[in-house]
Design goal:
Strand content: 25-35%
Strand order of the largest sheet: 1-4-3-2-6-5-7
Helix content: 25-40%
Mean pLDDT: 84
Radius of gyration: 30 Å
Low-confidence stretches: none
Order of helices and strands: HEEEEEEEHH
Shape: elongated
Number of strands: 7
Largest sheet: 7 strands, mixed, barrel
Structural class: alpha/beta
């Protein structure tokens, strides 16, 4: 076993490796943050159950960004405002639409962007303080929920106390006739 270890050399090597690793980590973090982003706002008139900050935003099935912030509209709490952070080269056009979507039956919800005809102009901010707004359309889940609500309301109307009494009277009359 060596009794005269060179502690200065070992300490210098350790400090040098640590500084190099820290420099690499800072360079990698700066490289990933240098990617240019564009912010858009989406205002939903439906619940966004399961959508969280950091959820994916896809354009025709391709991931192009994330949900940066979610909050209720101050003037109308039935509406939800979502701030999206998308890649700057994502072709968001004036006729692009956003809707809630879900990966399969049990997957996590995300925002799906669709549309954007080739001849439509790009959706860009007018000034530095203005965030462009992507228009929304109802999600398939919301359409199913609305249809189910209408069906239940009609079924409730059809099975009212008065209609049940009429059906009972008709059955009683049929029994008496036979």
């Amino acid at each position: 076993m060596e009794t005269k270890a060179n502690y200065v050399l070992i300490g210098s090597f350790t400090i040098l490796v640590t500084v190099l690793l820290l420099g690499f980590a800072l360079w990698a973090a700066k490289y990933s943050s240098d990617k240019t982003w564009q912010r858009y706002q989406v205002i939903f008139n439906e619940p966004v159950t399961g959508l969280t900050e950091g959820s994916s935003v896809q354009y025709n099935g391709i991931s192009v960004g994330t949900v940066e912030r979610l909050k209720l509209d101050v003037q109308d709490p039935r509406r939800v405002q979502a701030l999206l952070k998308l890649e700057a080269d994502a072709p968001v056009k004036l006729d692009t639409r956003a809707k809630m979507s879900q990966a399969g039956l049990t997957g996590s919800p995300f925002i799906q962007l669709t549309g954007g005809s080739p001849n439509a102009p790009l959706l860009r901010q007018q000034d530095r303080n203005d965030i462009p707004v992507i228009q929304t359309e109802p999600s398939a889940l919301q359409n199913i929920a609305d249809t189910a609500n209408r069906l239940v309301a009609r079924l409730d109307q059809m099975l009212s106390e008065e209609n049940i009494r009429r059906i009972s009277d008709t059955l009683e009359n049929l029994r008496a006739t036979t």
